[in-house]
Amino acid sequence: MTVHGPDCSFYQDDNNTPQQINFQKLGSISDFVIIRAGQNNWVDPDFKVNWELAKIAKVPRGSYWFYDSRVSPVSQAQLWAKTLGSDLGELPMFADYEENYGGPYGGWVHFKTFLETIKSLCVNKEIGIYTAYYYWKDHMPAPGPDLEYFHQYTLWIANYGVSKPAVPVPWSADEWKFWQYTSSGDGSLYGVESSNIDLNYYNGTRGEFDTEFVIESGEPEGDVVESWFDGTAQYTSGFREIPRPFYFHLTKFRRDAVARVHVNGKGFLGTALYFWNSRIDPVLGHPDIVINGDEGTGLANPPKAIGLSDGVLYKPETSETSIQWNNKHEILGIGWEALPGAYNACGGSNKLIEHGVIVPTLDDMYVDPRNAVFADNTHYYLITIDGRNNGTMGLTRKELAEFAFSLGATWGHNLDGGDSNSLVFNNNGVPVIKNNPPEGYLNRVINHVGFWLKRDVIPPTGDSMKYTCKVLLDTDERKTPSIYGIKTGKTFSKPTTWETDYYGVVSEKEAWVGTPDGFYTAQRYPRNLWPEPKIYVDVTENVVPPTVPPATDDYFIRYNSADEPQGRYEKTA
Q1: What percentage of the chain's residues is helix, strand, coil (to nearest 5)?
Q2: Are 94 and 156 in contact (CB under 8 A)?
Q3: Which of 12-16, 421-425, 515-519 has the lowest mean pLDDT?
Q4: Cα 385 from Cα 197, distance rounded (Å)
Q5: In a designed cystine with 567, which of 219, 286, 383, 471 is the match (CB 3.0 to 4.6 A)?
């Protein structure tokens, strides 16, 4: 029995450390992993991260749900299916029957309800049962049709310290698919933080395993292209063999689609933690895209470049250059010191491309995982190069610059790479790791860059519903409190009466609120709660789109002092 793998849950991760399970290490000595999805009415707290990291490491995955008799089998099955979504894994889904809570939903009738429910929710997915011989025997009906019902499900049997597992009826002696043969595997060998880990055999050869679960050979395929954030960004991942084998992750989006850029201060957070713990924009919420930033070697150490976050210069000294943005979230350039008007800055050791020319002095010796920000006149190119895993090591700085230059980049700066490589997307409030971290988890680094992107949405043709344009007004744009709807030419005037704003302030300076017809509302965030005064505006207008979709600008709101659209329409309830 040479095909084997562990099963794991939150017990294999120590929440007091920044590490997660190292699935690269686990996958190097395992053929598969079965991951606990949840129990009762809660999801295993590490499931989503484990599920994603195992996928990145290309370890075939199965999931299991620890059945709990204290909670309805239907609600448990529904939560399991919801948790997996469209990614059901490569191996079967296993219903884990081993509990003894004595709840009202114990026994084979409720076990059957659980199985029938999950089967109806995950159509055409192989479902299995995890159990032990005597537990199953004590909780099943007598031999007959009711017992035979369970024969249709794949068996994962637990039996330790024997040369062959004891298999309960209705399965025959050799009819098991997976056998959990020990709970005392060496956790350190499998990249987990627990001292022990469960280990399992597959009942068959490696060829049979690959065929049964359609496990691919692992050879690189064509590029994977995904559209993100309502089409505002395009993500591409792929494999190249020249100048050396490497895997890349390219995120491309328009420079004028950036609503906000934020570089966090001296936080030393993992990227997924930064996603949650960074200053959350009161209007825009969590950042859409997060990449790791400058180098830092410990909790007490600042970045090597200047430390500049939302206008606060907390470290003026520098030993390297940095990318710098103004308070309009536009690129100012690259500098050693803070450039005039700089509002955020992030270093990372080297200019890579400048004025359309690759920097001639770039290192071409050290091959490492890389992370960098590139741009041309109209687009950003965020590039992460995997390495120290999947049989690749990364690229040199010169090779990285040449790759970006081949894509059209005319400007670029390196960020911290190596084991700190991080690229995280916001998937409806859930951080999704898009790169392949060298150690199988995201290291903590000294700072990060977060990007918030605008969405360009045109109302569908023939729809006469009301639409709302959500907009941010910068300081200079507050000078003229009138808004024009480009399509209709209607002016929304400053109201004559004032009401309480979001923070309970009643003041002409602090709030614009609805006109009598209800078409215009606005809120300003007070200075003491936001370093750059901004106004959050909802403008609602009856829009009857023509039968032929108009140009995008026809549905944008413009301000008297603004040259570019500042918002987008969204259908209101």
Answers
A1: 20, 35, 50
A2: yes
A3: 515-519
A4: 32
A5: 471
ω into 369 cis (within 30 of 0): no
Residues 274 and 338: beta-carbon distance below 8 Å: no
Q: Return the bridge partners of 323, or none.
A: 334, 346
Tell me if the pTM is above 0.85: no
All structural domains of the chain with their residue ranges: 4-212, 224-453, 466-571
DSSP string, 265-315: -S--EEHHHHHHHS--BTTTBS-SEEEE-S---STTPPPSS-EEETTEEEE
118 torsion bin: left (phi>0), alpha (psi -120 to 50), beta (else): alpha
The residue with greater pLDDT, 548 or 336, is 336
Region of residue 495 (left: phi > 0; alpha: psi -120 to 50; beta: else) = beta
Do the Cβ atoms of 557 and 471 come closer than 8 Å?
Answer: yes
* The pLDDT value given to residue 448: 86
* Cα gap 484→482, rounded to integer Å: 7
Burial class (CB in 10 A: 0-12, 13-18, 19+), 333: middle
Instruction: Report the DSSP pairing between strands 154-158 and 178-186.
Output: parallel
Sign of CA dihedral 436, 442, 448, 449: positive
Assigned token pair, 66: 């620890």
**Encoded amino acid at 454, one letter:** K
Q: How far apart are CA 568 and CA 561, in angstroms?
A: 17
Give the other-Cβ count within 10 Å of 170's Cβ: 19
Tokens of 242: 């020249």
Three-class SS state of 360: coil
| pLDDT(385) > 70 | yes
For residue 249, report the phi and psi dihedrals to the nearest 5 degrees. Answer: -135, 115
Place of tokens 């290490």: 25
What is the distance between the alpha carbons of residues 412 and 372, in angstroms, rounded to a whole number? Answer: 7
**210 pLDDT above the threshold of 50:** yes
Residue with the bigger pLDDT between 528 and 189: it is 189
What letter represents residue 328's amino acid?
A: K
Nearest Cα neighbor of 458 from 501, 495, 487, 429 is 487
What is the band of 455 on the pLDDT scale with cuts at 50, 70, 90?
Answer: confident
Closest CA to 1 of 31, 34, 36, 33: 31
Q: What residues pair up with 252 in beta bridges, in sequence order?
A: 234, 381
CATH superfamily ID and name for 4-212: Glycosidases (3.20.20.80)
Q: Please give the pLDDT value at position 18.
A: 62
First-to-final CA distance of the chain: 59
Distance of alpha carbon 131 from alpha carbon 180, whole angstroms: 10
